[in-house]
Amino acid sequence: MSRPSDHYDSPDPAASRAGVAPGDGAGDGSGGDIAQPRLGVVGWLRWFWRQLTSMRTALFLLLLLALAAVPGSLVPQRAADPNGVTQYFVDNPDLAPVLDKIQAFDVYTSVWFSSIYLLLFISLVGCVIPRAKHHFDALRAKPPRTPARLSRLAGFQKRTAEPGTNGAAAIESARALLRKQGYRAVVFTAPGANGSEVTSVSAERGYARETGNLVFHAALVGILITVGVGGGYGFSGQRVLVENGQTFVNTLSAFDSFNPGRFFSESSLTPYSMKLDKFTATYETKADGAFGQPLDYDAQVTTQERGQSDQQSDIKVNSPLRIGGTDVYLLGNGYAPTITVKDPSGTVVFTDSVPFLPQDASLTSVGVVKIPDGLADQLGMIGFFYPTQAVSTTGAFYSTYPDDDYPVLTLNVYDGDLGLNGGKPTSVYSLDTDTLTQLTGGTTGVKSIELKPGDTAQLPNGLGTISFDNVARYASLDIHHDPTQGFVLLFASLALLGLLISLFIPRRRVWVKATERADGTVTLEYAGLARGEDPRLVPAVAEIADRHAKLLSDRSTPESNA
Amino acid sequence: MPLTIDEYSVFFLYAAMAVYAAAFIAFALDLARRSAQVGAGNQVAVDGSVTTRERVLETVGARAGGSTTVASGSGSRGGVAATSATDGDAVTGASAGSTSGAKRSLSLRLGVGFTLIGFLLELTADVLRGIAASRVPWANMYEFSMTGTVLIVGVFLIVITRVDLRFLGTFITGLVLILLGISTVNYYVGVAPLPPALQSAWLVIHVFVASLGTAFFALGFALSGIQLLQYRRESITTGAKFLKLKFLASLPDSKRLENLAYRVNIVGFVFWTFTLIAGAVWAERAWGRYWGWDTKEVWTFIIWVIYAGYIHARATRGWRGSRSAVLAIIGFAAVLFNFGIVNVFFHGLHSYSGL
Ligand code: HEM
């Protein structure tokens, strides 16, 4: 069978029902299930398979897939927005665990979503394979015999050929004409009513329509498989690089976070190194509605691949750097104030550029400094950085512009146990203040430490000094490796191509029949048959008839002159 | 103070809206006139031309004579041949009939004329906005509303030169007016430079093709909607008045409407497929992954799957006709939702509404 039995163009199963299976072809959903013959296991499997590969099931699964994709847009997803999920748990403490049980935060990898698309793709494969086989046969077969009566078919025309036309010759020229138009054409002869011969040509074109359809569906399978496999071999990792700071080397330990695919092995990391020389952000300076809007981010890096000399490149938002089998994307940026802490004797106990996380469009940023050793107490600090500081009427600080025109750093200092010794992993971006005592800022009555670049201040309780040396920029880079994404693009393009062919190339049959009458005249009949959507069939048949008439008269004119 | 280019653009946009409103009124009058003529027992063709009751009888006679000559020699089957010819391009058939002294509708011609003028004004507004911003005018909600509606009207004007769908004028101008009304009131933003994430050739391609797809889906939506009404009218026994929408009698039958809707929707679907792929390519360049189930990606996918369902429904026994039309309507509802709701209210990486 070429197409599922409930395809619109398949013979009506109600008419050809052989009682093979229960509910087969229950087109109207009623009746059908009376007096089923007993089925063995194989029979049931067969029946099940036919149900699964029917058009109606495919349609149902498609609609179900669309529906099942909706919840993932309503509830934050772990893969795309992990912070959103955490926030959702805070905001909806009762609902969130229930939703989590039904995998509402991982919709697109959930059991239920996966089962829908896997079933759909099984159905797809079950549908495509028999069709491909049938189509392969059809490609080698000849067009079918000319029907006895053409008059009921689309675009039917009957014309009388000019006197002296030979029926067989006329059909031969029709065949040539049709072949030129891309038809596969065969000539048939059959005995006519009064002992004469009826010659006809049966032609068919547009086999590509079905080919395109098969390519389209097969390409979808291709996409599914490559996406599945590619996810397994690839990885994605993040790394923050500060201007003129540390050099990144492409090894596991150098990533701040790393998500390997299932089949990832560390040996697939190609060694290379990368250093951020300079990060430039350009902002709108015109004082209209867009003041302060970013115009360009440019991370200038120096890279080195094994055995090669250094290379300078730029990484921009829409232009990643492709290096060593990985793609490096510029996903974020911010400020990293360089902070130095000294103990009362002047010994440096901490000095680093600490990346702060931007909180708003003017890049007010928050960061954490932890000093576990070297001072009398463990110190933790929560810092606020204002690139262009301003003071509101309430006395609060804020930033008016994202560039560092008037940078100010404020710090709230805490002492106590930083919790670093318990072996529990802690984020460098957060400070657990439960076990700490606040020494400055907030309700302590002691003013927060406030520094401009170059300033130094005393830490509370005579613990030492802190200085804000300068501001550096940092770039946060995503480093990805997906060996199959080229194939995904290839399959997607094939799908598009197949779609175009299958939707816009008409598949049609055309017949031309010549009947010689008793008086020697020849009648020519033309007709066509659409196979699938074919809005232009009738004009096409008419055009063939016109061209054929012209061919015949062109040919007969010189002959009569000679 | 002289007006800025953007202010000129807004001025042209308001002018376009005023002219679209006039077009809407003219198209609505045409439908009213059709209803009145049908109610008076006259025959109204798809192109709005009227054949009065006496003439109806005359032309029917003449046509019967005509069709026998077309299919000379095939006797009683001539009728069949003539019908299949009409099936293929019913519209040419209908307009051919109207040349024989039938009255063409002034309101319909005015409607098309106003639509064309409105289109030129809006196109000017759109181009000026692009000049003011020195980039393509489709980088925020206000701008896509403008470019999207220019494309809807443009596609409509092009399609009616090939197939007579002028009867959709009320719908098209009405839809465009609503969209423009919402967008000028709620989405207007001054000219702003592109943020780095949008600085890509893919903005030009991806968003433009998405808007073009939307324009075709809009036409398909209108046709499917009328198809459903027409189908109800056809299935109600003759004589019963349905919703007083008598003008339906002057429109193509539900089958023809279904075929037209399908032809328009598959064009939209191809553009949408391209949008999906181009979006993935762009996402790979900008965000480092080609697909991440971001809300906007999810909805683009949902729309694509719904229309794939529609195409399947057309090929599934028992689903052709009204059921598949309902799917096309749901599909377009999802398109509007994706544009109007997802862009503004849903969180995601695609935060480009400019609001
Ligand atoms: C991932 C799931 C699927 C998608 C997205 C999909 C999509 C499409 C699209 C867009 C078309 C129209 C273009 C063309 O003719 O090539 C189509 C046609 C078709 N599909 Fe699918 N399909 C899917 C699964 C299936 C399955 C499971 C079956 C078998 C039951 C199937 C059978 C068909 C058939 C027979 C047609 C031709 C329709 C016609 O004759 O007009 N498809 N499909």
From TrEMBL, chain A:
Biased composition (Gly residues): 22-32
Listed Basic and acidic residues bias regions: 1-10
GO annotation, biological process: cytochrome complex assembly
The organism's place on the tree of life at top rank: Bacteria
Region (Disordered): 1-32
Its membrane topology: Multi-pass membrane protein
Transmembrane portions of the chain: 58-75, 111-132, 214-235, 486-505
Keywords linked to the UniProt accession: Cytochrome c-type biogenesis, Membrane, Transmembrane, Transmembrane helix
ResB-like domain mapped to chain residues: 55-536
Any one annotated GO CC term: membrane
Localization per record: Membrane
Protein name: Cytochrome C biogenesis protein
Organism lineage: Bacteria, Bacillati, Actinomycetota, Actinomycetes, Micrococcales
